[in-house]
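Trying the structure run again after the queue cleared.
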Amino acid sequence: MPPEQRQAVGGSGARLTKIRKSARSAAREPRRAAQSRLLRIIGGSWRGRRWRFPALAGIRPTPDRVRETLFNWLGAYVPGARALDLFAGSGALGLEALSRGAAHATFVEKETVAVREIRARLAEWSATGARVEQADALHFLGGSASAQRMEPFDIVFLDPPFDSGLLSPAARLLEERGWLSAGARIYVETAAGGLPPLPPSWTALKAKQAGAVGYHLLERARTAERGAASA
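Done. Tokens:
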């Protein structure tokens, strides 16, 4: 075979190899994406159960190691508690609370796909004491009728998108509209670098940082009365 033909054949083979490698890489991408969206329950009756959360831009689940630290902080406060997973997203925090013995968890999430997935997990795992509200978090908190229908919460997970500016307004509504029991624990997750203004009746108990994420556990004053801030 003349040299120029050998070169052409060799070049075609190299291109074919590159195409095959690119195709294999492209086929692996969805699998990698699915694995990156895999969560697991850290402790409690559902310990080890895994699920995938929707591929939505606004969902940023609390990492496993942070959840583990948070629930170590909460400890014996969880069993029998009423929990509110605001800006629920994947539902990881509320699901973890139910797994560890919370008597009730309300999930508030506005995205239809995320709501459907949370409801599917609750049904699949035969959860009791759970409620899922498809709503904007601030509209939910601002609805006095909703607050009057529900008992106050003992634990609130407050983890809005970092750049949304929703943390302070949500905290104010939680306090003013009577959503919190006296001595309630409030978990706040935000970008590292400090907290925005929060109600003066909330006292910091614990705080840590994991990379660009700051996470905090606060306690509402035990002497505070439901809805006292709006009086």
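Residues 25-34 have pLDDT under 50 and may be disordered. Worth checking whether this holds up in the mutant runs.
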